[in-house]
Design brief:
The chain is mostly helical. α3 crosses α5 and α4 crosses α5.
């Protein structure tokens, strides 16, 4: 590992990188188009998934929310909103 740090890192820093500012950066907010697409997909999950989610604690639900977001940028407050949305949707779907 140290060899990588000393030899290859300095070489990698010399290689020019192309920045492409035209590529849109996805950012999650519950109210934006990314959030609406995610909540729409959650709305149509199968009932057995909701039964499983309803049994989770907050940390498990938050991990699930992070897995959904993947590489999408998000703020902690928006992650909290998504976690709460998932929890409430699971309660709603399983209360019948």
């Amino acid at each position: 590992m140290e060899k990588i740090q000393t030899e290859f890192k300095t070489l990698a820093e010399k290689i020019p990188r192309i920045e492409n500012s035209r590529i849109p950066k996805f950012e999650f907010k519950l109210e934006n188009h990314v959030g609406k697409a995610i909540t729409n997909r959650l709305e149509h999950m199968d009932l057995s998934s909701f039964h499983t989610i309803a049994e989770w604690d907050k940390s498990e639900t938050e991990k699930f929310a992070k897995d959904i977001l993947g590489i999408i940028d998000f703020e902690q407050s928006e992650l909290n909103k998504l976690t709460e949305y998932i929890t409430e949707k699971a309660k709603e779907k399983t209360s019948d």
